[in-house]
Design brief:
Elements (H helix, E strand, L loop, with lengths): L13 H9 L6 E2 L16 H13 L12 H12 L4 H4 L3 E7 H16 L4 E6 L4 H8 L3 E6 L1 E2 L4 E2 L1 H8 L7 E5 L12 H14 L2 E6 L8 H4 L1 H9 L3 E6 L11 E7 L3 H18 L6 H10 L2 H31 L16 E3 L4 H11 L1 E2 L5 E3 L8 H11 L1
Parallel strand pairs: 1-12, 3-4, 3-7, 7-8, 8-9
Antiparallel strand pairs: 2-10, 5-6, 9-10, 11-13
Helix pairs in contact: 2-12, 2-13, 3-12, 5-6, 5-11, 8-10, 13-15
The protein binds 4'-deoxy-4'-aminopyridoxal-5'-phosphate (PMP).
4'-deoxy-4'-aminopyridoxal-5'-phosphate binds next to helix 5.
């Protein structure tokens, strides 16, 4: 029977990492997958995570199963990070959170909840968006539609196109928004645009689903929640998929969360009972390690400050690389304007390079970036930036 199975195409991002690993060149550079690297080109375990892990190993008394929704203290931390510690949503118990295996797991739970429990079957995602969104929502049984997001000439948000496309979204349709650090463009709505979108969403009756994978990578934990919190003021119902892969550097621990906000505690609980059913049939209950670490850090004032400082270190290093990248390209006489790179948020830069240029970077220089031209700035260091800029100067 297996002989009839045809080969699947390689994943556009993770497939690139496989190709990178196989490349024998010693000066190769991987700027494909969104993983933070420090100045030494390493992705180290955060110091606050190491400390929390040591404590966890000391204090842990059992490996018994967690509940379907996971660790309670973790759920509280997730909600405080999303809505702010003194949020009325938390006080009114309008939100329920389930720990999830990564942001991806949370998105899949969201997709299945929408497909099975809500009247709509349609989700609107930005064009472009993270390469896995379409796959996750299609697998959950949703119909995926796109709204315009990016103006390639202006290298900016195409707000008019976004509004024009979303004018076709019906009441009850789900609209996916990136909480901050839009992947892959690095361009987020302005505060005024967030306000306008939130009001429109409430008026039109859309259900907003926030994908929040980079909180703290644009400006800071509180600042980056601006869009979500504006939506929460205007929209009674919301869904959120959180990921702590990047901001806690716990990529392989699969730490995420699915949060549902309803008009009151009772409605939230009823809907959440269906979420639990979805989880039970998928992976039964979540793994504990990463979520425990997050809960320990967030509930210890000293470790929490350490985390904020380490997060700021990551954010500042990326920002420094953006500025340096722009400077070094212009000092090489690249006459194409790359100044927009310094205005983008988060780990990525949508470079505007075409497929041919991306292929040349890989073939001639051993530099791996995603076919869309997305560069993971988080992978640029002072040791590889000159080689990168030389290569770009040669191909642009
Ligand atoms: N959403 C976006 C926008 C992402 O960039 C990513 C990670 N690349 C995810 C979700 C998934 O996060 P995780 O690795 O925690 O599943």
């Amino acid at each position: 029977m297996f002989e009839k199975v045809t080969a699947a195409p390689a994943d556009p991002i993770l497939g690139l990492t496989d190709a990178f690993r196989k490349d024998p060149r010693t000066d190769k550079i991987n700027l494909g997958v969104g993983i933070y690297k420090d100045e030494a080109g390493q992705t180290p375990v955060l110091r606050c995570v190491k400390k929390a892990e040591a404590r966890l190993v000391q204090e842990q008394t059992t490996k018994n199963y967690l509940s379907i929704e996971g660790i309670e203290a973790y759920g509280r931390v997730v909600q405080q990070l999303l809505f702010g510690a003194d949020s009325a949503i938390i006080a009114g118990q309008r939100a329920r959170t389930a720990q999830a295996p990564g942001g991806t797991g949370a998105l899949r739970i969201a997709g299945e909840f929408i497909a099975r429990q809500l009247e709509t079957n349609t989700i609107w995602i930005s064009n472009p968006t993270w390469a896995n969104h379409r796959a996750v929502f299609t697998a959950a049984g949703l119909e995926v539609k796109e709204y315009g997001y990016y103006n390639a000439d202006a290298k900016d948000l195409d707000f008019d196109a976004m509004l024009a496309d979303l004018a076709h979204a019906k009441a009850g349709d789900v609209v996916l928004l990136h909480g901050c650090c839009h992947n892959p463009t690095g361009i987020d709505p302005t505060e005024a645009q967030w306000q306008q979108l939130a009001k429109l969403s409430a008026e039109k009756g859309w259900l907003p689903l926030f994908d929040f994978a980079y909180q703290g990578f644009a400006k800071g934990i509180e600042e980056d929640a601006y869009g979500l919190r504006v939506f929460a003021e205007h929209n009674v119902e919301l869904l959120i998929a959180s990921s702590f892969s990047k901001n806690f550097g716990m990529y392989n621990e699969r730490v995420g969360a699915f949060t549902l906000v309803a008009k009151d505690a009772e409605t939230a609980n009823t809907s959440f009972s269906q979420v639990k059913g979805i989880i039970r049939a998928n992976y039964s209950n979540p793994p504990s390690h990463g979520a425990n670490v997050v809960a320990i850090i967030a509930n210890d004032p000293e470790l929490y400050q350490d985390w904020l400082a380490e997060l700021a270190e990551m954010r500042d290093r990326i920002q420094e690389m953006r500025t340096l990248f722009v400077e070094k390209l212009s000092s090489r006489g690249v006459n194409k304007d790359f100044s927009f790179i310094a205005r983008q948020n988060g780990m990525f830069s949508f470079s505007g390079l075409n497929k041919e240029q991306v292929a040349r970077l890989k073939d001639e220089f051993g530099i791996y970036i995603v076919g869309s031209g997305r560069i993971s700035v988080a992978g640029i260091t002072k040791s590889n930036i000159d080689a990168l800029c030389d290569a770009l100067a040669a191909i642009v």
